[in-house]
Amino acid sequence: MPGFRPRDRLVRLAVITAPHGVRGAFRLRCFTEKPESVAAYGPVCDERGRELFALEVLHRVPGGVVARAPGVADRDAAERLRGTALCVPRARLPEPGPDEFYQEDLVGLEAVEPSGRRIGRVTAVLDHGAGEILEIETEEGTLLDLPFTRAVVPEIDLEAGRLVVVLPSVIEAEAAA
């Protein structure tokens, strides 16, 4: 597939949430700073790296945009895409500024407590609509789902490949004191 090498880490730009109308348009929930810029990074692929199509943004809607794509000609075709994550290789995106990062940059980072004790590794940054969740696989192999807030993750050091995590039980104990 031209332009999509397996070694490129993919960054999720949007998710198709629903068809819009009867001519193949669909609604996107966008993760870009400006929702309408979702089409600015070239053809999108799915999370497996399979090239899908180039997007054409039609207009903004609350929470995202309405878009269309070649080959998606009717409502049924748009409905079949519901839930599809739209991604691009990380290399296509502009470099983040100081103290900025892409969520995908956090995956693989070592998670440590403020004392330096290792907790595990970040396996995903999830967003189910009520706020971002940091998924960490512990040394024992269990998964921790923690709110991705400054109180829980006060420090991110991409250069060192780690982030500091204050476990919620510690936050609750400090609040009770």
General description of the model:
- By secondary structure, this protein is mainly beta.
- It folds into 2 domains: 10-92, RimM (Elongation Factor Tu (Ef-tu), domain 3); 103-176, PRC-barrel domain (SH3 type barrels, Roll), CATH 2.30.30.
- 8% of the residues lie in helices and 39% in strands.
- It contains 2 helices and 13 strands.
- The chain has helices at residues 75-80, 168-176, and strands at 10-20, 25-30, 44-45, 51-53, 56-61, 64-68, 85-89, 110-112, 118-127, 132-138, 143-147, 155-157, 162-164.
- It has a 6-stranded mixed β-sheet with strand order 11-10-9-8-13-12, with no helix packed on it. It has a 5-stranded antiparallel β-sheet with strand order 5-6-2-1-7. A two-stranded antiparallel ribbon has the order 3-4.
- β9 and β10 (132-138) form a beta hairpin.
- The longest helix is centred in the last third of the chain and has 9 residues, at 168-176.
- It is elongated, with a radius of gyration of 19 Å.
- It starts with 9 loop residues before the first strand and ends with a helix.
- The relative contact order is 0.15.
- Mean pLDDT is 88; it is low at 1-7 and 171-177.
Percentage beta strand: 35-45%
**Order of the strands making up the biggest sheet:** 11-10-9-8-13-12
Low-confidence parts: 1-7, 171-177
End-to-end gap? 58 Å
Number of strands: 13
CATH 2nd-level architecture of the largest domain:
Beta Barrel
- Biggest sheet record: 6 strands, mixed
Q: Please bin the fraction of helical residues.
A: under 10%
> What would CATH call the homologous superfamily of the largest domain?
RimM
How many domains would you count in the coordinates? 2
Task: Return Rg in Å.
Answer: 19 Å
CATH class of the largest domain: Mainly Beta
Structural class assignment: mainly beta
